[in-house]
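Objective 1b: paired records.
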Amino acid sequence: MEFNHDFENYSMPEDGLKNNRKSLGKMVKRYRRKMFLSFVVVALVAALIGGAAGAGIMRYVSTGQTQVVNRYLPLSSDNNNFDLITNIVKAVSPSVVGIDTYTNGYGAYGNSYVQEGSGSGIIIDSQGHIVTNNHVVDGASKITVNLSDGRKFPAQLVGKDAKTDLAVLKINATNLTPAKLGDSSKLEVGELAVAIGNPLGDSFAGTATAGIISGLNRNLQSDYGPVNLIQTDAAINPGNSGGPLVNSIGEVIGITSIKLTSTGSSSTQDPFGLFQSQSVTLEGMGFAIPINEAKPIIDDLIKNGYVERPVMGVSVQQITKQLARQYNIPVGLYIAQVQQGSGADAAGLQAGDIITAVDGTNVTTFNQLENILNKHNVGDIISVTIWRNSKTITVNVKLMSSSSVQ
């Protein structure tokens, strides 16, 4: 069979030309219909994505080959709520306050001055109690609370707890809007998180930033031992401290406390010593105190003005395996000091003793000792095994209140 490649000299019969024209017309029409339907589908999906991008929280629902974007986590049960973050901010902002602090100081030549600071807080009841961070109000000689409606009130410090970095204030005011506290134990990584506060003071009061829950149970080391925190990438800046971190239904699930930023040799840039003078650039590393852990602390501060914890009445230092080998002593906790009149003092514990076990459980770190003590109440009696002069002794120690050593 041969094919004629002389197309220039080829002439189609008239009947064939008409038939082909009809076929070509039908093909064009079908093609236009397909293109139109494709354009409509693409435009619809693009419009939905573009509209949802403003909220930043979306979910995809598969509908065959097309993915349709719907709003995620509505503030109410109405799935058509298209103003999620806006509604969260409107609901929570009346419960968020600005805190101005004034601290008296003295210069190098004895001249006095007043240092001003700022932070945020959360109204937790109609009686005027406000929770914030201890580091916001610590050392302040005067504290002023600024409500979202423009009212200002002097605040009384009810109590503070350096270990958990929490403090409670009180103002004499009416028509307050307490925040709704949530359940931080139900959080999941990836959930919506909104932070509201006053970064850099009153000029930026009521600033809202949104992100997600980036991590849970982040144990960071502080001067008072490990602290358990929620990690978020919602922007947190100086002045946000003490403000709420809220979930998708406007419940407070955390109290913003700290942010890790670019680190270097300065300890103030790396408060937990995570990077040991290495220069590391960080973004979106904010942390909040879980509300479930804050609640009992807040209750104690309102009730007593302090947090009552069971303590032995000793100051200890950790003996590592290396030190134990070097000095031929057991691994454990070296008692550096015994508080006079404490349970440890009454039990006969002495400076120089090494605690090796409590309640039959070996202890080699301060955290292990603290975890055991936290399972007890003030007044409980624990058994403490110590090493003294190459001999092992077990004594009973009555736990005392931490308030007696503050």
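Objective 1b, second protein:
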Amino acid sequence: MSFPQQSAERHDEEASLTGFAAKNDLEDTRMEKYDADLKEKPAEETNGVLFSRSRRFMIWTILNVVSTVGIVFTNKAIMSDPSFRSRQVSLAAYHFCITGATLWIASLRFFGVFTPKYVSFFQMAPIAAAMAIQVVLQNLSLAHSSVMFHQLARLLLTPNVAFLNYVLYRVKIPRAAIIPLILLCSGVAVVTYYDSLPKADNGSTTSTLGVIFALTAVCASSIYTVWIGFYHKRFELSSMQLLLNQAPISAGILLCSIPFAETAPSISTVPSNIWSLVLLSGILACFVNLSQFYIVDAAGAVSGAVIGQLKTCIIVSLGWALSGRSIPRESIFGVIIALVGMSMYMNIVVRNQR
């Protein structure tokens, strides 16, 4: 499981530039205050602060990339086991419990990572439910798809969020960005077609269910991403404050649904290495969320999206290399088209923001 970037990310790891439009005002205010503080400090002290911030940002960025790539392949290995293949709800609930506990500890006065700000259950319930649904759908997509297709399908979050922002809030994208989005969608469509064709060795790499789950996960993640911006602005919450409110409610929703959606696996039939991977998956989920929110808070949505692009390239490349299958040339062509379209779109949006 991977959060959108915001979660994720919960923040997927992997949110649209336009999905953070409602948060940009708060980021601009913080940056203006930070710049004013720097001007009042001596040059040596200012350089020291900048170096310290740059070093922390680099550490968190490396941690984010490693943990995001690691959790995708860890979850894929977990769900390849028959005992966990149909238990994505339990896995998501486990991740939410670990994440909520980590954020609660980080918010304690002793650690002081951030100051908690609580919102009522009824106000948080809609976005918490959306968060739970989109994470479960992402897990189902990963269970029934190749890693390469699962990760590329997440790029469709960008045009979906742009469309929802326009429909709901009349937030427009530059006209020049339309062609890159068309390229992006076309590339994903090509990969979807060729990755779901039956293979001579062992059926199709991505099943029809995998395609359905991937597309519905993108739709659910789009709604969740748009709501993130809305909740940030309405309740004046930072990313960590928002996730601290969401995670326990999402975990509760999933825990209540487990008896109706799943049957408990026989512990004796689960290999010990799978339990080790489950523990590792929870640790990586915490690192993904904490590092992703630090990156967005410290450097803004643009830097977060650029790092997301890097993670996509790494995951697709490793998924291809570790699959042990021959990848059709048409799929490679589709991957290149999708990544080129995403890069062009990001470049256009960055120039417009400047």
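The two ends are 34 Å apart (CA to CA). Residues 162 and 223 are 11 Å apart (CA to CA).
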